[in-house]
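Mods, move this if it's the wrong board.
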Amino acid sequence: MTDIVKFILLAAAVCLMQNTAFAQGGIGLPNQARNTPIEIDADNGIEWQQEAQAYIARGNAKAKQGDVVVHADQLTAYYEKLKGGGTQIWRLDADGNVRIVSPRQTAYGTKGVYDVAKGIFVLTGNPRLITDTVNISARRSLEFWEKKSIAVARGDAVAIKGDKRLRADVLTTHFKKTKAGKNEVTRVDAYDNVLVSSPKEIIRGKRGVYNTKTGIVVLRGGVKITRGADQLNGDAAEIDLNTGVSRLLSSGSGRVRGVFGPKNLRPKTKPKNKSVN
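Not the wrong board. Structure tokens:
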């Protein structure tokens, strides 16, 4: 197939997808207005499967809408026919080397599924999210909930800032629109088996809240702070990731308890007796 034929087929397929989108207000990528046009292109063209009711873009495929771009080896858009006529796209699948790029965040994975109606994009395959303030990864999945402006990392989820780590079974990242209209991370909630670690200490608890503006993490529920041989136990703890200062707190009748291990001091060596000739 010549490059000219490929270009004609690609242009026709893109027009079909855009016409479908405009007829129903746009398929919409995460956090983008539905009336914003979507541009889709791929190195190996776009295939229209009428029986499967799908458009498939193969080879370095890219879907762009506003300031959000979805990259993948293959993009598949599924549509459904409406009773009153016309069609609307209800799902977008991204397979292989998935990358979602926006002005302040970039997400990576091997497979992504976007439910257009629910506004939920689920990324799997060792997914990770890189932002201006914190980097987040997970073993199981990374979900973007457009309508709630949150991202949920599941399965050994980790948030990293410098040499500090916040780990939990589930991490929920909250986003907020800036005056410039861009999304920024404001808070990260941690649930179950929460652990905050730094080169000097390890802090454990049941749940936690990380304020990315202040750099402070508040842990609650059976909190334990371990610093070498020393251990502090309490109801809650406040950790400043910027200064490295941690405070153990108590609530109600709860008491704060500390166990301090022996210090490994190097014993003084006795001077050797000089021999007398």
